[in-house]
Amino acid sequence: MRKQKTSQSTPQEPQAQQGEQNTGDTQSVARRLSSRRKRAPKRRRSSPLAGLAVIVGRTVGALSRRLHLGGGTSIVGMVAQRVYPDIIKHLASQLEHGSIIITGTNGKTTTSSFITAILRDGGLRVWHNREGSNLMRGIASLLVMHTNPTGKLRYSGRAISVLEIDEATIPQAVRVVQPRVAVFTNLFRDQLDRYGEVDAVIAHWKKALHTLSADTTLILNADDPALASLGKTFEGKVLYYGIDDLSHDLLRQDTATEQHQTIDARVCPQCGSDYVYNARFYSHMGHYECPQCGYARPQPEVSAGHIELESFDRLRIQVTYAQQQQEIVIPLPGLYNIYNALAAITASLALNMDWEPIVSGIEQSKPVFGRGERIQADGRTIRLLLAKNPTGFNEVLRTLFSENVPRHVLFVLNDNTADGHDISWIWDVDFERAAGLTRTLVVTGTRALDLAIRLNYAGISRQDMLIIPPAPLRASREVTGNRGPQHKKRWREKAKMAELVSDQQELRVYGLKSALDRALQQTPEGETLFIVPTYTGLLEVHHELEQRGLAARYWKGNDA
């Protein structure tokens, strides 16, 4: 049931401008951006089963932390769901201001961090699953950690939750949470062995949208044709965001950069014809239209006009919305972070936030875990730039070497489950951009050899990179006896790696710790080491920095 509108404004729910009409063709863009009033949570009686799930889950989480078996975050939700499978639905319905979900291939973490900061600056109590996973157990953990043993949310649920959701978890999440706002950032090829091609992901998302209430506001990237098509089938309100500054159009820049862009959405979903682009910013992001049926990029309600690069991690943009123009500074590097900021701005305007908390929330934000994060180490600066798929890696390299300044770089390529076992995508990455621009270069990870070979093909000689294998090399040992084919295959791989690195170093130098030591030693004091890892590589790097006392444990924080 929806609460009646009142004539007074509160910090939690800024008052919409009076006098605007919401009828027919005269409906203003400002009114379209205004939020629906907050919904009163359904009153639920105390649930003994929910209370038991909370007690058991939090107890197990505390034991996990005490025994140093992990952060004790996700396990809370896992156990609580085992005790009471409907715990998320039970608790999410108690949130007075509802929930926001954010998903997409890239940018989920940064966008959700922006939104969290904006809403807090706007006066809301925000619960954000920054500490746990972005799967269902992470959502459960977040809510359980804010729940009394009676099964009721603390503070009577006077909060809004900001939930970063894994792409594959969206169907479950939207069905159970029924969000007030759903933000989709982008869709790129990523972990094909887990997600499949982008068409398969879009098909799952379309089915998920059918389970959403018409009260939900859908926030979509207008420049991503795969995402924008979701708005055509959704019955609720849809708001688009995008970039209008054509000075960053790759089609008007050097052809070498354009040739290395991976295009993951090529054809119109309505008629199957190839898109024609009037502008492309990266990958398939840009201004497009179908010459056959006329389907084209929708006009965004929130857009970035003039974009000015003031420094490596300082972007000034002009934002247009509701026939207004405002300036805002994004304290993060890369064109992709402009999209993240626009997504956060659009979601905040959909919740009727004022411009002041939007500015303070974004401009005072710090880089989140591994997304431009800055760490000091013995007079040197470490910058962590996560790159987990071809498009993300291309944009990191584009940002890193856009000024043609030589950098100190450490690449970490892993092929663990969370990274995706198939790493053939590295051949779609524009490593040619780095040729001649690495002052020092160290390569490590479970697939260090594969990456070294790719870098060699990109024009970086073996003498210009230091390859640190993940484990001790015993390539000189002969294959004898009735060893299986898998053992022989591993031996041959190690033999190749030994041949590649033997002229550079002693074979006893291996592992991420040694790679980090060497990379820091090669970086002079006062300069910056840029570490570009895949996901599990980021976890390993961060853990090593935590062990050295250089970084806080990544799950630390207070979302209350």
UniProtKB/TrEMBL annotation:
Pathway named in the protein's UniProt entry: Cell wall biogenesis; peptidoglycan biosynthesis
Annotated keywords: ATP-binding, Cell shape, Cell wall biogenesis/degradation, Ligase, Metal-binding, Nucleotide-binding, Peptidoglycan synthesis, Zinc
Family indicated by similarity: Belongs to the MurCDEF family. MurT subfamily.
General function of this protein: The lipid II isoglutaminyl synthase complex catalyzes the formation of alpha-D-isoglutamine in the cell wall lipid II stem peptide. The MurT subunit catalyzes the ATP-dependent amidation of D-glutamate residue of lipid II, converting it to an isoglutamine residue.
Active site: 422
Domain Mur ligase central: 102-263
Keyword Repeat recorded: no
EC number assigned by the record: 6.3.5.13
Cross-referenced InterPro entries: Lipid_II_synth_MurT (IPR043703), Mur-like_cat_sf (IPR036565), Mur_ligase_cen (IPR013221), MurT_C (IPR013564)
Subunit structure: Forms a heterodimer with GatD.
Catalyzed chemical reaction(s): beta-D-GlcNAc-(1->4)-Mur2Ac(oyl-L-Ala-gamma-D-Glu-L-Lys-D-Ala-D-Ala)-di-trans,octa-cis-undecaprenyl diphosphate + L-glutamine + ATP + H2O = beta-D-GlcNAc-(1->4)-Mur2Ac(oyl-L-Ala-D-isoglutaminyl-L-Lys-D-Ala-D-Ala)-di-trans,octa-cis-undecaprenyl diphosphate + L-glutamate + ADP + phosphate + H(+); beta-D-GlcNAc-(1->4)-Mur2Ac(oyl-L-Ala-gamma-D-O-P-Glu-L-Lys-D-Ala-D-Ala)-di-trans,octa-cis-undecaprenyl diphosphate + NH4(+) = beta-D-GlcNAc-(1->4)-Mur2Ac(oyl-L-Ala-D-isoglutaminyl-L-Lys-D-Ala-D-Ala)-di-trans,octa-cis-undecaprenyl diphosphate + phosphate + H(+); beta-D-GlcNAc-(1->4)-Mur2Ac(oyl-L-Ala-gamma-D-Glu-L-Lys-D-Ala-D-Ala)-di-trans,octa-cis-undecaprenyl diphosphate + ATP = beta-D-GlcNAc-(1->4)-Mur2Ac(oyl-L-Ala-gamma-D-O-P-Glu-L-Lys-D-Ala-D-Ala)-di-trans,octa-cis-undecaprenyl diphosphate + ADP
Annotated spans, Disordered: 1-47
Gene Ontology process terms (BP): cell wall organization; peptidoglycan biosynthetic process; regulation of cell shape
Biased composition (Polar residues): 1-29
Record-linked HAMAP family: Lipid_II_synth_MurT (MF_02214)
Keyword Metal-binding: yes
Molecular function terms, GO-annotated: acid-amino acid ligase activity; ATP binding; carbon-nitrogen ligase activity on lipid II; zinc ion binding
Basic residues composition-biased segments: 33-46
Binding-site positions, Zn(2+): 268, 271, 290, 293
Lipid II isoglutaminyl synthase (glutamine-hydrolyzing) subunit MurT C-terminal domain span: 386-467
Annotated protein name in UniProt: Lipid II isoglutaminyl synthase (glutamine-hydrolyzing) subunit MurT
Organism: Ktedonosporobacter rubrisoli
Top-level EC class as recorded in UniProt: ligase
